[in-house]
Write the structure tokens for this entry.
Amino acid sequence: MNCRHTTVSGLAYVCNHLYDGLTDSIPRHIYTSTDSEGDTNAYCVVCEAYRLDNGGEWPDDAAMFLRVKVICGDCYERLVKLSSNIG
Ligand SMILES: [Zn+2]
Ligand SMILES: [Zn+2]
């Protein structure tokens, strides 16, 4: 992957599992939410299960579990496209 996420607009915050999809191209379901800043936050089914296990709230140590990465809008679109390959 050559993208260095230098695009200023359309940044997205994704969990490390989704981020892996940029290199391994394995489709993963994407769950999204928009934060108070209007930025896109996205995470995978593993992280969603983790959240549900905690009563539907992100626990204090969630950041360690998600290991969130910042990617550009183009890469985010790639992940969305990839996830649409799931039947
Ligand atoms: Zn990128
Ligand atoms: Zn995840």
